[in-house]
Write a structure and sequence with these properties.
The complex is a heterodimer of chains A (367) and B (137). With 367 residues, chain A is of the alpha/beta class. Chain A folds into two domains: 17-218 and 271-316, Aldolase class I (TIM Barrel, Alpha-Beta Barrel); 221-252 and 318-367, no CATH class. Chain A is 37% helix and 11% strand. Chain A has a nine-stranded mixed β-sheet with strand order 6-5-4-3-2-1-7-8-9, with helices on one face. In chain A, helix 3 (89-97) runs parallel beside helix 4 (114-122). Chain B has six helices and six strands, in the order H-H-H-E-E-E-E-H-E-H-H-E. Chain B has helices spanning 4-9, 20-24, 31-40, 84-92, 99-110, 114-130, and strands spanning 48-51, 55-60, 63-68, 79-82, 97-98, 134-136. Chain B is elongated and about 50 Å long. The two termini of chain B are 34 Å apart. Classes of the chains: A alpha/beta (367), B alpha+beta (137). Chain A binds chain B through residues 20, 22, 69, 72-74, 100-102, 122-124, 126-127, 164-166, and chain B through 56, 58, 60-61, 65, 67-71, 73-74, 77-79.
Chain lengths: 367, 137
């Protein structure tokens, strides 16, 4: 277990701190109908036959949902790949829904069929996260290698909007859709309602767990990444203050973290992973999170509860590399054990891409 | 003494004497006190209640929560935390029951006075009715 103030610990833990698997992620499949250049999870299509063979069946997912519900899971995210790609999605979804969770469904909205809508109308998820990759067919072609998916997404979103679920729109920005970000926001507001907001992944990491994307070839340079984040933040401020916005009063400050510093908590990875959250991969492995494939236990080999209990015992983290340890920006760095592993192939590695991003943020803070 | 058959054949009216003083004071009584006075006078509360199927009771990390499900999320998209006594009452409401059944359940489970149980059940039912979480039968 890792404690932020480990130096001040003068005694060994007498017992393991309470760990309850409140927040779960079910990665229903790793397959996807889109071929996004920056996807962290999708494998090469040549592996699909094998993947289909190894994916958990609908019955296995439903049984797992029952187990995790009894183990304390309250909030459950169903994601992929693209979950709706599964031919048994409706049966699987209904069976999971009936176990009773605050349910979130992630989708690219391009595979919404009447049958799926019928199921979702009967059992609407509390929240639907829809990923949008561009504001035109051309951008979808560039990012996802499928121009027609743009219109399918728009039609899918129109249908999903008829549900009582909360819709969240998300995007991942790479070189190929960088110019589309404002257009995506405009499209959301004009086509799907003024209240629609777009959230953006702050950083695109290299692919993990055997995924095939060449992220380096398409992701933004750190400078553009920070510029985009800053520009979008300013836009949000403008949307609140309107004409009163004046750039000379703009200041970038670190969020107050003193409360967390005063009350350090015991963790496995420095976050909630493995303490009160987890992911179960498409092939039935218990993971700390979807990004962290280094430590995994088979939930079909026994039970979820037993895997959850054993999980801390398999997590062995190396010492943090000296560069990161000595870095004055460690506190503002977007890095975690999973992203270090994704970026460097080494849990203790120093990810150059993240370092460059953090250095720009540090310079902005120092201004 | 009339037999049961006769009682059911003929309409009958019973007169219950009320204490004038008690009636005069009613305006100042709380709902629970009023219910207790009326019960003493012989009035029987016959309404039955049943929990709305729009909520699902889950026990999560030693907490009892009611999860809003189905089309109900258009009205309320989230969950409600309950203490143990609310959870006992909610479970009781899974089948049609009267306020008296609920009061009895609280008394059995928590060893509280009848007066306290009446007050708690009234408050609970008021909350449920205000939030469309219970059907009155």
């Amino acid at each position: 277990m890792e404690c932020p103030n480990a130096d001040h610990m003068t005694h060994l833990l007498k017992k393991e701190p309470s760990r309850i698997p409140i927040n779960g992620t079910f990665e229903l499949t790793i397959r996807c109908n889109l071929h996004c250049k920056m996807c962290m999870f999708r494998h090469d299509d040549s592996e699909n036959t094998d993947i289909v063979h190894r994916e958990l069946t609908a019955d296995q997912w439903i049984k797992l949902a029952n187990e995790v519900s009894r183990a304390g899971t309250f909030s459950l995210l169903l994601t992929g790949g693209e979950p709706m790609l599964r031919s048994d999605f409706c049966e699987l979804y209904e069976g999971i829904y009936k176990q009773g969770f605050i349910l979130t469904l992630y989708t690219n909205a391009t595979l919404v069929t009447p049958r799926i809508m019928e199921t979702l109308r009967r059992y609407p998820p509390h929240r639907i996260g829809i990923t949008i990759y561009g504001a035109s067919s051309e951008t979808y072609e560039r990012v996802c290698a499928d121009a027609s998916s743009f219109d399918r997404m728009r039609e899918g979103v129109k249908q999903l909007r008829s549900l009582p679920s909360i819709l969240d729109f998300r995007t991942t920005v790479i070189n190929d859709n960088y110019a589309d970000v404002d257009a995506i926001e405009t499209m959301l507001r004009t086509e799907f309602g003024e209240s629609c907001r777009l959230t953006q992944a702050r950083m695109v990491n290299r692919s993990v767990r055997g995924a095939c994307a060449d992220v380096d070839a398409c992701r933004l340079e750190p400078e553009d990444n920070v510029r985009l984040a800053l520009r979008r933040s300013i836009n949000i401020i403008k949307s609140y203050v309107g004409d009163r916005y004046d750039e000379k009063y703009l200041a970038i400050r670190l969020a107050d973290n003193s409360d967390a510093e005063k009350h350090p908590r015991l963790t496995l990875f420095g976050c909630d992973a493995g303490m009160d959250s987890y992911a179960i991969s498409w092939d039935g492995k218990l993971l700390g999170c979807q990004m962290m494939g280094a430590f995994a236990l088979d939930v079909l080999d026994g039970s979820f509860t037993s895997a959850w209990k054993r999980f801390p015992g398999i997590v062995k983290l190396p010492p943090l590399n000296e560069t990161c340890q000595a870095c004055e920006s460690l506190g503002i760095c977007n890095c975690c054990w999973a992203s270090r592993l994704a970026e460097t192939g080494d849990l203790g590695g120093c990810p150059e891409y993240v370092c460059r991003d953090t250095a720009i943020v540090r310079a902005l803070l120092n201004k | 003494m009339k037999n049961q058959e006769e009682l059911t054949k003929h309409p009958s009216i019973s007169f219950i004497a009320c204490e004038a003083e008690a009636l005069n004071n009613m305006a100042s009584l709380s709902d629970a006190e009023l219910k207790l006075v009326l019960e003493k006078m012989g009035y029987r509360f016959t309404k039955k209640f049943c929990a709305s199927p729009n909520y699902l009771h889950r026990r999560v990390a030693d907490m009892d929560v009611l999860l809003s499900i189905g089309g109900n999320i258009v009205n309320f998209n989230g969950y409600i935390e309950m203490n143990r006594s609310a959870a006992v009452l909610w479970d009781k409401l899974q089948q049609e029951c009267s306020a008296a059944d609920m009061e009895q359940a609280l008394q059995d489970e928590f060893n509280i006075s009848h007066e306290k149980a009446v007050e708690d059940v009234l408050d609970f039912l008021k909350f449920l009715q205000e939030n469309n979480m219970v059907t009155v039968i």
